[in-house]
Specification:
Layout lengths: L2 E9 L3 E4 H5 L6 H8 L3 E4 L6 H16 L8 E5 L10 H9 L5 E5 L5 H14 L6 E8 L10 H4 L5 E9 L9 E8 L7 E2 L11 H5 L6 E2 L1 H22 L7 E6 L4 H11 L9 H4 L6 H11 L8 E8 L3 E8 L1
Parallel strand pairs: 4-5, 4-6, 11-12
Antiparallel strand pairs: 1-7, 2-3, 6-7, 8-13, 9-10, 12-13
The protein binds oxa(dethia)-CoA (UT7).
Oxa(dethia)-CoA (UT7) binds next to helix 2, helix 6, helix 8 and strand 12.
């Protein structure tokens, strides 16, 4: 069919918040944050900088690399848990900001698994009789807007950023698709380990919800940790076994960048430590942007060659998890 990754891009906000900065805000230490998470610093959006601003900046970079203009897109998907507003969806706001023509635009809310959910969905739409030709898939998060800066158990973890991927169908049956195989799953029974309780229709914003800090991320850290390792390993094994891919064929494993300890536990259980790409120390957990940032860093630094096999895997609120075997 010939559905290929044609471009990648990222937007990392300028402002850096270091562990030393956090030591002045809550009762924590660089030693604790580094040893428990591997994170050294994270980037935060400027006050007026929105999720869609970062998404549009990442999209423009990806379009440039793909040698395309925005009016060539016929599908735009944005994954985010921090949309600009409840509606309209952030994809339509990005569409306007990048100057795309009228086309299909929607958001995916699958938390940290969102970019992989988006790539799986876009591929399905492009490969189906719907025949979408050029898709923009973005993971974008302004997590600083929903971070409780007085809660040391969560505020040290997250950062803001966006990343984008452009897919194009060249309609050449001899070109192998980027999509070798994918696995997507969720289990709502485990949803209350990681959530933002208020702001939806169950608890609309009120003085009480604001006073109770219910518009912020709430997470059972250790439980999330365990589930993350288990589900990411499982998802990778399913794809590796289903496609009969020997470990040595994989060039890169790109796990969601939540915590260095989670990444290394997943890598060691898969026996693929030396193939793991990680940058969590520089950005913290940027949710749905994290895998896209890794892909873009690898792509722009020439560390991905045509034909390379990349295994991306993620885990997030929902609970959701997903893996994608990519032919570069
Ligand atoms: O993107 C997907 C979603 N998120 C994740 O994948 C995150 C998954 N979870 C984690 O990464 C880890 O559970 C954390 C990094 C959040 C926490 O690490 P942990 O080793 O599981 O620590 P803990 O929650 O069991 O806390 C250990 C201790 C506690 O003190 P006591 O009760 O033992 O006295 C906490 O109060 O560390 C304390 N603590 C801190 N101390 C200094 C918690 N946060 C901090 C902090 N600084 N920032």
């Amino acid at each position: 069919m010939g559905i290929r990754i044609k471009g990648t891009g990222r937007c990392i906000p300028e402002r850096i918040l270091t562990n030393a900065d956090l030591e002045k805000m809550v009762d924590t230490s660089d030693e604790w944050i580094t040893s428990r998470t591997g994170i050294k610093e994270r980037h935060l959006a400027a006050p007026g900088e929105t999720t869609s601003d970062m998404a549009a900046a990442a999209a423009k970079q990806a379009l440039e690399l793909a040698g395309m203009t925005a009016d060539m897109l016929d599908l735009i998907i944005v994954s985010t848990v921090t949309p600009d507003m409840m509606f309209p969806n952030t994809a339509t706001i990005v569409q306007k900001k990048i100057g795309a023509k009228p086309c299909v635009c929607f958001d995916i809310e699958a938390a940290c698994s969102g970019l992989l959910y988006g790539l799986n969905t876009a591929y399905g739409m492009m490969a189906s009789p719907l025949k979408y030709q050029r898709a923009l898939i973005i993971g974008a998060e302004k997590l600083s807007a929903i971070t409780d800066w007085s809660d040391r158990s969560t505020c040290v973890l997250f950062g803001d950023a966006a990343a984008a991927v452009i897919l194009e169908n060249d309609n050449d049956p001899s070109t192998p698709d980027f999509y070798a195989d994918g696995f997507v799953c969720a289990d709502g029974n485990l949803g209350d380990v990681l959530l933002m309780p208020a702001g939806g229709s169950v608890l609309p914003a009120s003085h009480e919800t604001v006073e109770n800090h219910q518009h912020f991320i709430k997470m059972g850290g250790p439980k999330t940790f365990q589930l993350a390792v288990h589900s990411m390993v499982d998802a990778c094994r399913i794809l590796l076994e289903r496609e009969a891919v020997p470990r040595e064929k994989i060039r890169w494993v790109i796990p969601h960048q939540a915590n260095w300890r989670i990444i290394s536990a997943v890598a060691s259980r898969l026996g693929m430590e030396e193939k793991v790409y990680q940058n969590v120390e520089r950005y913290g957990n940027t949710s749905s942007a994290s895998i896209g940032i890794c892909l873009d860093e690898l792509n722009r630094s020439g560390q991905l060659q045509s034909g390379d096999c990349v295994l991306a895997v993620s885990f997030g609120a929902g609970l959701t998890w997903s893996a994608l075997l990519i032919r570069w």
